[in-house]
Amino acid sequence: MSLEAVRRMVRLRGRAQLTVRAVLGAATALALTATAGCGGGAAPGSAATIGGSMILATTTSTQDSGLLDLLVPLFEAQTGVQVKVIAVGSGAALEMARKGDADAVLSHAPEAEQPLVARGDLVEGRLVMHNDFVLVGPKGDPARVRGAGSIEEAMRRIAASGGFVSRGDNSGTHAKELGLWAAAGIDPGRVPRREETGQGMGATLNIADQRRAYTLTDRATYLALRDRLSLEVVFEGGERLRNVYHVYVVNPEKHRGVKAAQARAWAEFLVAPETQRAIGEFGKDRYGEPLFVPDASRQPGAAGR
Length: 305
Prior knowledge:
Elements: H1 3-13, H2 20-37, E1 53-59, H3 60-64, H4 67-79, E2 82-88, H5 90-99, E3 104-107, H6 110-119, E4 122-137, H7 151-161, E5 164-166, H8 172-183, E6 194-196, H9 201-211, E7 215-218, H10 219-225, E8 232-235, E9 242-250, H11 260-271, H12 273-281, H13 284-287, E10 293-294
Parallel strand pairs: 1-2, 1-3, 5-6
Antiparallel strand pairs: 3-9, 4-7, 4-8, 4-9, 4-10
Helix pairs in contact: 2-4
């Protein structure tokens, strides 16, 4: 079975019906077929079987969107590496890396990542993909955010009307939100009926829906949960709302015990052409658009050496 066949199965059955067992079975067939059919060589986009285990610290959006439900079993089947996923806010994921408590990081908080690159905690950074942030709010849009000419004006309208749910968890999304308030000249602590959940994106969307409030979300998580929500996209677009994901290896020279070989295999898997094509197709049939845009070909070299 080819990786294209696996992707077709994902598109036909849909993520909600696709079990990890089904993906793993297909991926195992892929790995075995590739080995037999290529004289022992790996299939395009796959890594050699190395075994062992690793800890991946990542943002909740990669988990909530369902992307990891596809990619992790494929990687495990191709490499024999067992992956323990810790899906938290990017801030918490990066803190795990700083302490050496993870082997690889998949994050979407570039400004928070760079200090760890400079300190030598993160190495071999690679650009993987992007999507974007969107503002969502209740039907009827009481703050009239849809009429805003800029994201700064949109934030000012929300501040004037009140009713905003923040993740408040030091995640990449939380950092982006705080930056948007600052750009709009707004003190978020003075926004009426603004509350912080301290939780991931899925939980925060549910709370915003219950409160009939606005929130900032990555598009992938919103699309994955849209059918369960009454929230609607009220503002989107523009470079300021771009949401970029990098993968890093936690530096084994600084943190003893890091599974560097496994982490490097994961990073190489994410940027391999076949995986990038799968990322670019993920979500198209179910949501009418891809949840992520593959970016590995757009950045030569590494983000952290």
